[in-house]
Amino acid sequence: MDCSKESVSSSQPEDNQASHRLNATLLGRVYDRVVLSRPVLFFLVMVLAIVSVLRYTPQFELDASADSLTLEDDKDLAYYRASRQNFPSTDDYLLIAFTPTAPLFSEPVITKLQSLKQDLLRVPQVKKINSVLDVPILNDPEMSLTNVSEHLGTLEDGYQDWSAAQAAFTSNPFYRDLLVSQDGRTTAIQVVLKTDSRSAEAVASRNALRSKARQAPLEPEEANRLAQLELEVKDLNHQAIEAHREAVDRIRAVVHQYNDIGTLFLGGIPMIVVDMLDYVRSDVGVFGLGVVVFLVLMLSILFRRLFDDVLGDGRFFRFLAFSRNGHIVQFHCAVVDYYHVDDHPFDCAIS
Question: Are 105 and 162 in contact (CB under 8 A)?
């Protein structure tokens, strides 16, 4: 009885070793026949797989429109769009904060502001400019209800009383801290950009169909129309972002020409969207390159150690495996005959 137990227990390690030998033999046979024996074919297959994946990269797009940043049925966005329909306005504008080195309300600075305004209006995407040059000076002491039309002068019309102009802009609640800072040293310039009316119409039609679809199934014609509008809105958003990118680049170039007369800062929603997309695109490229370099380095270190173990002396390798009870078992295997894998190429010992 004891002898049979000993024979059974002694046969188990031999069975395990035979199983590991069989697995190693099968893995070596597959790797040799698939990879090592046909390196050129395997390389071409890998290149073909990579190319087949890379051809989808043009479809990768970055979208920073309101549709991509909010929920489809966002209540706040719906309320905002409803308000826009009742009180038409535009978000497509840029703001320039200008703090001149000389007093703001002086002839040299006003002349430079007029020149800046004309240069900005030459940008194709600019619709109009709102600044201290264009708004009426409301605090004229000679103004009354009977002659208000005669005293609605602007700085661009040749108004020369600079101290009165400064007092008017810094004391009027419509202008103070909105158009001109409270100390009268900084002013804001609104650069209104041209918009595509098709975008607002397409978004309104699409949202109407979306609302209808949430209440009841759409007719086939309406479903097709909704699908067309989805593509149209997406394309119009892409065109708007590209137009804003070009406008921001042109306006930045114009603003840069006037840095010698003071400090100018450019801001606004279109600029934030453009810069955010550029930052994300740059980060994706840098991060992707970093990941590739990291993987190459790690795989180089890993496989160098592996090859050192496998072919360090040409005849020996070792590897780790987990036994059934969870312990790590290290196998030391000598290569008996690598090229004839059918006849026990490995001789392994467990440590």
Answer: yes
d(CA 347, CA 336): 7
CA angle 89–90–95, rounded 5-degree value: 120
Cβ proximity of 67 and 239 under 8 Å: no
d(CA 48, CA 212): 46
Question: Nearest CA to 258 among 93, 92, 94, 102?
Answer: 102
- Amino acid symbol at 273: V
Sequence-distant (≥ 6) Cβ neighbours of residue 251 within 8 angstroms: 94, 120, 123, 126, 191, 266
Q: What letter represents residue 131's amino acid?
A: S
DSSP letters spanning 36-80: IT-HHHHHHHHHHHHHHHHTTGGG-----SHHHHS-TT-HHHHHH
pTM of the model: 0.64
pLDDT tens string 47-66: 898 888 877 776 666 665 65
Percentage of residues of the chain with pLDDT beyond 70: 69
Which residues partner with 335 through β-bridges?
346
Beta carbons of 238 and 79 less than 8 angstroms apart:
no
Beta-bridge partners for 58: none
